Amino acid sequence: MKRGMTAFQITALLFGFAFLYAPIALLVIYSFNASRLVTVWGGFSTRWYASLLANDQFLAAASTSLRVALVAAVLATIVGAAAALALARFGAFRGRLFLASMVYAPLVVPEVIIGLSLLLVFVALGVPRGYWTIVVAHATVGACFAAIVVHARLVTLDRSLEEAARDLGASPLATLRAITLPLAAPALIAGFLLAFTLSLDDFVLASFTSGPGSTTLPMRIYSQARLGVTPEVNAASTLLIGFVGAALVVAWACGLLRAREEIGRAHV
Question: Are the C-beta atoms of 188 and 136 separated by less than 8 Å?
């Protein structure tokens, strides 16, 4: 028989959620503070959101972050999916262990080391730091996360569908386009959103690889916070949280619709 949660388990669960989300809740609440002092509640107001929308530096940083995250996520998904496909479908080829090691390496290597390494590479090659160097840095890290998600999906797919397509005369490319990619679509979307979120949130890599005119939103928030946290910073952080939360809801809804479609096909 299943037993309900004990009082200790419920308390531990509530404490854990409070520890994780109470600071975020306070940040959101104080973004609507009418007072200029973030620690003194002066009443409800949206003045800081209006001030934020009139701040050209914040808007430029937000635009840079969104553009970097979008391009980096696309590149990370393509590279990660290719690596996952090689690991899941090409068997025990020469260099498989090396490829797997390189895919998982960014998960264990500190971002400071990755950022410094990329900085040295860009300096050695004479590449000016700016928008594209940030994109390359974020895509490098995001690709490993996308590869893990897509690989987990590919190894659980029913390969008989791919084999049936090949038996009917489909080429490997046609099988990939018509069978493998549609079945792996939820993982591709999840990998894209994960890489997008990681890029949007990154501060360390952008600090090493950015240049003049390529300040991202986390960098702008950090530089502003060093001079003193204001409700305007809280408003920017709240909008960022809301944007990421909306992306996660969309991803969850897409996954739910996909699961319902697969269940419907199974009952037909």
Answer: no
